[in-house]
Structures are given as C-alpha cells and as structure tokens.
Amino acid sequence: MRIGLNMPNFAEFADPATAVSIAREAERAGWEGVFVWDHINIFGEMPVPVADPWILLAAMAQATERIALGPMVTPLPRRRPWVLARQTATLDRLSGGRLVMGVGLGLPPETEFAAFGEDPDLRVRAEKLDEGLEILTGLWSGNPFEFTGRHYQVARTSFHPTPVQQPRPKIIVAGTWPVAAPLRRAARWDGYFPLRLRPDGEADPLEPADVAEIRGRLEELREGRPAEIVLSEEATRAALDTDRLEAFAAAGATWFMDGLGTRTMALEDVFERVRMGPPRLTAPVG
C-alpha cells in the first residue's frame, strides 16, 4: 500500500508557495504522492481563498521528481473535457509521467454548480462524468476521435502530444459507498475512491471490513482484474495508527492518503506532520 498526502486547494493551502513547500517536504520525507482537492467555491459567499488546482499541481510537479501527483478528485461534470485533456496531458509530461487522475461528480452542487448556472442534478452530473471520461481518454490516445453524446459533441480531431503514460494515466473514480452505481463506474476504469458521507455531508471513515467488501465486489465486476482502492482520512484520526493502516493494506487498499484538510490543524502543524514522513508498515500489502 502506497501512502500519500491529500490537501485542499483553499484557505492556507491556496497559497502556491505553501503547496510547493508541502510537496518538496513530502518528497524529502518519503511520502509517495501529494494530491489536491478541486473546489471552486465550496464556501459560497464566505470570503475564503481558493486556488486553481492545475496551477498548484504544475508548480508542485516542477519542484519535485518522484512523488505521484494529481487531483483527488476533479469534478469532471463542471469542466470541459477537451480542455481537461490538454491540461492533464501537459501535466503528465511536465511531471515525467506522474499523474494519477481522480475524478468524481463534484460537491457541493449548490455552490459549485447551480451558483454558476450549471445543472446540479445528480443524474445530469453522472451522465456528464461518463461522457467526459470517454472524451478525455479518447483525446489522450492521440488517435483521430469524435464523439456525440447527450451533453457533449466533439468533431473528428486528434490531440497531441499525448500523456507520457501509455496507454494512459490511471483514472480513479470517487463515489459514495455503498451506492452501487459509482462502484460500477469505478470498475470500468482503474480504481475506486470510496467515500461514506453522513447526512450533514461530512465524511464517515471506512473500516477494513468495508475495504475487503469493496475489493471483493470490484474483483467480481472486473472479472479478477486488479484495481486501485484509494482511501483518505483526516490526520487527526489515523496519521500514526500503523495497525489500522496495515489492516487496510491487508484488506486490499492500494493507496492511503493522510488528509491535511482538518480545520483543527494550524499550518505549522501541517508542516510538522509532513516532515515526520509516512508511517512505516511492517508488512506492506498491495
């Protein structure tokens, strides 16, 4: 199981210099990836700084050599897939093939979709996510591509340069567990980022037994082909709990991300946490 960091693109983390410093310190300390949230207006009218995740990731890619990078996750339904294809291919080349592509429906729909005239309907967002993934991967291929869907149309074209990673970067699909549709979508791609949400919208951590069930269902849907299972928890709960991490690894998780977005962590505490490095598992699995 690989261990990385997952951080917001708002508040203190919206400062590009801070994001670059975190990425550099993470690489020095032995973390295997740094991932960035993708929000545009999560707090509505509250005056909270928010940064563009792609500029943050490009700066982080330029400042590092080894760690995996990417959005975890980008809400593809509010992005133009052809623009995203250019951005992500460029980022994969800039990073030397280190992009891991996390995608999802996008939350909260009221402030990040409806507030800007985008349709917040769940079914519409799901349709746009599926169509967007077909366009993204079709354009990544570099081959002549065209698409006609309910929401998007692409005239015959080909995009170059392609990503460094071939046949393409890995795509990890976020979804609410145990809802079946997101799991089926994830099974069509490369992995699943399960989130269990309470009625108030806050995340409710998964347990190793959940991961084992997810692994079994993914293996069934994928007819035995392996898939990534990506977990993220806030640092206040699981940062140093190696027993818990080893249980996740044994259950089938392939990535664990230490979340840096807690409202209780001051920035100096974040840097201290990063410099401590990832927990060392005695028997890595996955």
Structure commentary:
With 286 residues, the protein is α/β, with parallel strands linked by helices. It has 10 helices and 11 strands. The protein has helices spanning 16-29, 53-63, 81-94, 109-112, 122-140, 180-188, 208-221, 235-238, 242-251, 267-276, and strands spanning 2-7, 33-36, 68-71, 74-75, 101-104, 145-148, 153-157, 171-176, 191-195, 228-234, 255-259. It has a 9-stranded parallel beta sheet. It has a two-stranded antiparallel sheet with strand order 6-7. The termini are close together.
Task: Record the SSE blueprint.
Blueprint (H helix, E strand, L loop, with lengths): L1 E6 L8 H14 L3 E4 L16 H11 L4 E4 L2 E2 L5 H14 L6 E4 L4 H4 L9 H19 L4 E4 L4 E5 L13 E6 L3 H9 L2 E5 L12 H14 L6 E7 H4 L3 H10 L3 E5 L7 H10 L10
Parallel strand pairs: 1-2, 1-11, 2-3, 4-5, 5-8, 8-9, 9-10, 10-11
Antiparallel strand pairs: 6-7
